[in-house]
């Protein structure tokens, strides 16, 4: 199989190919057949072996990695990865942790409170203190089960799939907005550490009928976004395949299927439609 490192293990000459904050999608693809010195039998990877890789070797070392003490001469263990969307089985290294990077992304520094928009588990699992919550929506984004979950709803060996957002012109994504104090972000950064980054968006608040609230102006707020350039991103696949992966995955936070079913129920309670989520829910029934 090929190697799909999810931690940076490159030499200095490759650092010039970094883009912020993650490598480009094209460079994420496993360089199968080009890393023969790095493959096979669970062998450890050393920095010297990686230096033989093409200069577009994915997941550049970047200052955004949380483990700043990581030494490329160390021998991190290899674990199997279920990234079958590449058409072959890969093996992955340690996972990216975005906690430290997110704590540097202070879009609302000095604010006494911040609006946080939840579009996935944050809708139905608000295990944090908040001052107020309101149904809200963001435009130009669509919800997709394209992000891998190695730490909550799956494992490094068998990742689950959870929600992220993709750009979609004209789309409206409904969810729940929470007004929080800045200190609430620290534990949320840990909760969302597997590839999610704080991003700033414009929130439209909704009334009880689900329409824009004429009495409250739109407000800037935060989302946690897992973009296609993060190492845990799985991307699109046939709905039946995504549903089967969700049905089989289980992690420290519970079954992956419960995440999907809870999200679908929460969206119904908000009175909103989401074709992707409800189609996945229907497909999941085949594997229950």
Q: Outline the low-pLDDT stretches.
A: 1-94
Which structural class fits the helix and strand makeup? alpha+beta
> Number of DSSP strands?
10
Whole-Å distance between the termini?
Answer: 31 Å
Short description:
This protein is 20% helix and 25% strand. The chain is built from 8 helices and 10 strands.
Which helices and strands occur, and which strands form pairs?
Layout: E1 2-4, H1 25-28, H2 47-50, E2 79-81, E3 90-92, H3 99-102, E4 114-118, H4 121-124, E5 132-149, E6 160-180, H5 185-191, E7 197-205, E8 219-225, H6 239-248, E9 250-251, E10 254-255, H7 256-270, H8 275-284
Parallel strand pairs: 1-3
Antiparallel strand pairs: 2-3, 4-6, 5-6, 5-7, 7-8, 9-10
Helix pairs in contact: 6-8, 7-8
Structure explained in plain terms:
Strand 2 and strand 3 (90-92) form a beta hairpin. This protein has helices spanning 25-28, 47-50, 99-102, 121-124, 185-191, 239-248, 256-270, 275-284; strands spanning 2-4, 79-81, 90-92, 114-118, 132-149, 160-180, 197-205, 219-225, 250-251, 254-255. The chain is α+β, with helices and mostly antiparallel strands and 288 residues long. The chain contains 8 helices and 10 strands. The radius of gyration is 20 Å and the shape is globular. The strands form 3 sheets. It has a 5-stranded antiparallel sheet with strand order 4-6-5-7-8. It has a 3-stranded mixed sheet with strand order 1-3-2, with no helix packed on it. A two-stranded antiparallel ribbon has the order 9-10. The model is unreliable at 1-94 (pLDDT under 50).
